[in-house]
Write a structure and sequence with these properties.
By secondary structure, the chain is an alpha+beta fold. It contains 16 helices and seven strands. The chain folds into three domains: 69 residues, Ubiquitin-like (UB roll) (Roll); 85 residues, no CATH class; 171 residues, no CATH class.
């Protein structure tokens, strides 16, 4: 509600007054268990009492529903809608495909809260095309041929995209969680820097995937293929829920390195990061003999990346943000020359 519209009738003042929206903690009991929810209240600017304004009750219901689902680890209505988009399936057929009653998903979409058991089935279907294919096969006889074929084809198509390791998916999901919008070019460079910094600090690569020397710098082809079919901003694509649904298996050391890279390299756009990589030894060595015509199959060996970043660590101490910022500063000066 805009500031100029924040006026309504206060039953205490007995007149129309201005009000402000504030957050208030309330305790509610659901299924014999108490929860503390943060809800929005309207407070009269003159007497300080709460006011009842249009739409506030509906907003509070939605706030409590969302917080309850989060507290209990239950899927949201938005999650279910994404699942339908991902697998191109209607609400009743989705219900049957997952082994539920035909009206179960329609009821969830109307606001009924799912059980933990059913919620976990929906969550797994969101994050695993393989699992969705299994459920479709199990409940094949309950579906029409058209619904089955369409959903199964969508699951197979998505499954073929996700050829990257679980570790890579976890890191990508973590990056998007921290940064929000990330262009494909920027994502590729951040993954490369994460590989370099992690291998320098812990003596082993974080990803099993190999990095290639493409014209725009280091690229993980599997990641390129994954996002090639997505919209410009992957988060806007319903299929991004597949990344959000991946189980977080990152260690504290891995998160530490990702945070280091996000808080330093992540402050720059993809083109700036590309210029930095073009002035690093792994890339320079890959160009040797090719110039700008590097074949896309040219490997940037993990050992070469590690070797370079071990030297960078000795000089700058890249186990800290200060050390990485100093390194980036020097590289940007080099780029500007």
């Amino acid at each position: 509600m805009a500031e100029k519209e924040r006026r309504d009738f206060c039953t205490v003042c007995r007149k129309e007054t201005e009000f402000s929206l504030k957050k208030k903690d309330v305790i509610r009991s659901i299924r014999d268990k108490e929860y503390t929810f943060s809800i929005t209240v309207a407070v009269c600017s003159e007497c300080g009492e709460e006011m009842s304004i249009p739409g506030l009750i509906d907003k509070n219901i939605a706030e409590i529903d969302e917080q309850y689902r989060t507290a209990e680890g239950l899927v949201s209505i938005d999650d279910i809608e994404k699942l339908m988009k991902i697998y191109k399936i209607g609400k009743a057929p989705l219900s049957l495909a997952l082994g539920f009653g035909e009206v179960t998903i329609p009821r969830y979409l109307e606001g009924q809260v799912p059980s933990k058991e059913y919620s976990d089935i929906i969550k797994t279907a969101i994050s695993s095309p393989k699992y969705m294919k299994q459920k479709l096969a199990e409940n094949r006889e309950k579906l029409t041929d058209a619904a089955y074929r369409k959903a199964y084809a969508a699951a197979e198509s998505i499954e073929s995209l996700f050829t990257v390791s679980d570790k890579m998916l976890n890191v990508i999901a973590y990056i998007f969680e921290k940064l929000g919008e990330v262009t494909p070019l920027m994502l590729q460079k951040l993954l490369y820097f994460i590989q370099g910094v992690y291998s320098a600090l812990y003596g082993k690569p974080i990803f099993e995937e190999d990095c290639r020397a493409w014209i725009h710098g280091p690229v993980f082809p599997e990641v390129y293929n994954l996002f090639r079919d997505f919209k410009y901003n992957p988060i806007d694509d319903a299929r991004f829920a597949l990344l959000e649904g991946t189980k977080d298996t990152l260690t504290e050391e891995e998160k530490h390195v990702i945070d280091l890279v996000i808080n330093t390299f992540g402050l720059y756009g993809g083109k700036v990061l590309e210029k930095i990589t073009h002035n690093e030894e792994p890339w320079v060595e890959a160009r040797r003999g090719y110039g700008d015509n590097i074949p896309s199959s040219e490997l940037l060996p993990k050992e070469r990346i590690m070797r370079y970043y071990v030297l960078v660590n000795r000089k700058y101490g890249i186990d800290t943000e200060e050390g990485l910022r100093a390194y980036i500063r020097d590289m940007l000066e080099k780029v500007a020359q």
